[in-house]
Design goal:
This protein is mainly alpha-helical. Helices cover 66% and strands 7% of the residues. It is elongated and about 70 Å long. The termini are far apart. The model has no long low-confidence stretch (mean pLDDT 97).
């Protein structure tokens, strides 16, 4: 019985340590799009929520409050940084066009073509697909 109790306690400790490491990783991570930041925030918060419920059920009030505080800080940080990032939009063309033309039309800057081509992954950059994902600005 003692071994079961020790194993459960160690598993809980490992989960909580992983959540702290995940929070540190989120703080150091530089998302490139609004969508990436918000999707990551939602996934990380779901992990925190599961552990917060388990901690509350175990009656560990101080740990419960610490996890809630850390979750709130991670969520706020990612949401705040997301607001300054471009969103992913769907671009729809009437006919296949060269990537340089599409980049200039979308952004007024043909140098943004490489990122657009990477996201769209066309068979050939001279013929962009009729519909693809691109950055909003």
């Amino acid at each position: 019985m003692a071994m079961i109790t020790a194993t459960a306690a160690f598993a809980a400790l490992a989960r909580r340590a992983a959540l702290v490491s995940l929070a540190l990783a989120c703080a150091a991570w530089q998302p490139t799009t609004y969508d990436d930041a918000i999707n990551t925030r939602n996934a990380v918060c779901a992990l925190f929520d599961a552990e917060i419920v388990a901690t509350a059920d175990a009656g560990l009030d101080a740990t419960y409050q610490s996890l809630r505080d850390l979750r709130a800080k991670v969520a706020l940080d990612l949401a705040t940084r997301a607001t300054a990032l471009p969103q992913i939009i769907t671009v729809t063309l009437r006919t296949p066009e060269p990537s340089l033309v599409v980049a200039y039309r979308l952004y007024g800057d043909a140098t943004r073509e490489a990122d657009m081509v990477q996201r769209a992954n066309p068979r050939h950059p001279g013929f962009m697909p009729l519909s693809f994902a691109a950055l909003s600005y």
